[in-house]
Amino acid sequence: MSTVGIAEIDSIKKRIRICDYLVVAQLFLQDNFLLERPLEFSDIKARLLGHWGTCHGINVAYANLKTYFNDNPDFTFILGPGHGFPALQANLFIDKELEKIDKNATLDEDGINYLCKNFSWPDGFPSHASPITPGVITEGGELGYALANAYGLGLGHPEKTIAVLIGDGELETATAIDSLNLRNLLTSPKNGTIIPILHLNGYKISAPTIYARKSERELNEMIRGFGFTPVWVDGNKVEDFQSVLNKNIDSPFYIMKNEKGLGGPNRYHNAHQIPLKEAKTSDKELKELEEWLRSYHFEELFSREKGFML
What we know:
The chain is of the alpha/beta class.
């Protein structure tokens, strides 16, 4: 654990922008990955697969946790909404973890091209987290098991600190909600420390989530009933995230709140899967996609000469 300064805060913000850009590029692009010329229809993948809505929140949580626990070799991050795989993959790429299992995923222009082109591509990377991914032990298309897996990983390993990100739609599953009882069953100095984080973005695939409709008081009391201390985090403010991580709180259960699909096209800001589905054939949507990609100012974050500038 570490107290981060202004430079680290700036680095976290840059990392989130980098990973958001790489998510969008993975979802849409088969060429022109650095956006060095105006987008053309030929740059867009023939079939658009994957999920955008949860990805920004994953990038926010991962960047903040990775920085805060950067000196803890026994820290592990578990992702509940595994359908947000392009975000996890972007972060593993930046950390050079992906390169350990795939020599083509180098941290340079060739690696960016390889990463983006091969997402949801024949013989490439799947659209969901899968066992070929470094550190992934389950198929990420199934929701609800993340918290139980976290407690299982910590069982008998007191040295481990395990943060687990849970989607608010995911928490509606029987497995996820029942796993909250493990707090009372497995709290022991002989086991690891489990840090649940609820990503409260308000929506699941087809409707608002139950937990987004609860009042703050209702949600707090439910979490307290399972033995946790609810801690609200503004997912749009890195400083706030780092501040709450630095507080000494017994059995914290973080509630990270930000909008689903934040940063995407305004008229699709709550999109669960692919916004701009007609980007390969619609001039209007192609233009919106280019504006979306350019909004991250990736040229400030990566160059052929310097690589990634974090």
